[in-house]
Amino acid sequence: MDHRKIIEYVLPGEIEKRSFEIIGEELKERGIVLPKEQEAVTKRVIHTSADFDYAQTLVYSKDAVAIARELLMQGADIVTDTNMAKAGINKTALAKLGGQVHCFMADEDVAQEAKKRQVTRATVSMERAASLSKPVIFAIGNAPTALISLYELMEKGVFVPRFVIGVPVGFVNVVQAKELFLDSDVPHIINRGRKGGSNVAAAICNALLYGVDQKG
Question: Cα angle vertex 70, ends 164, 91, to 5°?
Fold first, then answer.
């Protein structure tokens, strides 16, 4: 087959739009109808990953998207567990709403404290995030221990997250960490199973931000 004959020529500025059209067409072919509130977020995750499993595995708590967008409009910050996720989040859009992105994982004092206490940097990072004076949306794409630490803070009555995006990827404690928040009262967007990643966490944040922008 001469693949040059089936290449679809699309102008650079139209590529994303065409990609979302294709995603919509393929979802329809699969008989999948996404809830209206969740559609933009799930489609952006599929766009980022090219993985249609997310249409089935992303779990949204009641009114999750509306709650997250309301927090963003109030100037909430976003805390991530990787600098990769931090790099992928649209900081300009967030700044317009009065928020900023934090990732404490690579901070030298975090590393030193984690080593001294013999805990993970994710644990110390979540404790650091809990001390922020602003509302925070947690976007966890890599470290299940970050989710576990947040849950332990809740159990101790020390801190309750306003919103959790829980999409860590991997094999050790990943599924279990996500399930903790699926059974909690904390508003959340969680991906069941092993899949996820920093790119998925960033995609969810951006979809939420772009929805706020469109509302405005």
Answer: 70
Q: What's the number of domains the chain is made of? A: 1
CA atoms within 13 A of residue 63's CA, in its CB half-sphere:
6
Q: Would the pTM count as exceeding 0.85?
A: yes
| pLDDT tens digit sequence for 88-106 | 999 999 999 999 999 999 8
CA pair distance 49, 196, nearest whole angstrom: 9
Residue 47 catalytic? yes
Catalytic residue among 3, 47, 102, 188: 47
Domain assignment present for residue 44? The answer is no
**CATH code at 132?**
3.40.50.10230
Find out whether 65 and 80 touch, Cβ atoms under 8 Å.
Answer: no
* CA dist list (Å): 129 to 122, 123, 135: 10, 10, 10
To which H or E segment does residue 78 belong? strand 77-80
